[in-house]
Structures are given as structure tokens and as C-alpha cells.
Amino acid sequence: MIGPEDYMGPLGGKLALAFAAGCSLTFLFCVGLGRWLMGQLVKAKDDQMALLIKRIEHLEQDRAEEREDHARQIAALNDRIRVLEALTIGQVRGATQAAISELQNEVRGNVPEAARPRRVRKGSEPK
Hints:
Layout: H1 4-8, H2 12-108
């Protein structure tokens, strides 16, 4: 067994210096490895950030193009709705005016004989 006298003897100082040298070399190795590893990690992070920034810019550009396309499509659809409404309202207006005119003519008795509906009596058939 090693006693305290072995550490404190004539070789005790040399043993302490050897231990201290080993500890300091190990510490310096760990510091160097940590710096190298952190440098690699920072470089990888920067590379990934650059790729992500490029991708975000690309996606923003695509989104702007899609918004322009959607705006054009919406404008075209709104124009089509206006045209269809004009056609539909024009047809309904014409049909409504024709129906109102016929009703007014029937009330006044101005309907020509050919336009009057024929009433069929029971037992008589039109010839």
C-alpha cells in the first residue's frame, strides 16, 4: 500500500508535476476539441440558416405569384358574373314586361281574337 510518505518523499514533487502536466494537457485537449466541435456546429447552423433563408425567399416568391394569379382569376370571375347577371336580368326584365303588357291588355280587353285562349265547353269539341 502507498502511504503519504511516498507522495511527500523525494519523488513526491515529480509525481505531482507529472499529474498536473497530464491534467493540463487533458484540459487543453478538451478545450481544443470543444472549440473545434463548436466551430463545426456553428458552421453547420450557418449553412442550414442560409438554405432555409433561400427556401423562404423562394416560397415567398411563389406565394406572390399565386396571389397575382388568384387576383387575375377573381377579376375574370367577377367580370363573368357581371355579364351573366346582365344577361339574366335583361331576359327576366323582358319576360316581366311582356307578362305585364299581356295582363294589361287582357284587363282592358285589347287582346286580339287570335291571341285569346279558347275555352272548350263540355260536350263541344273545336272543329
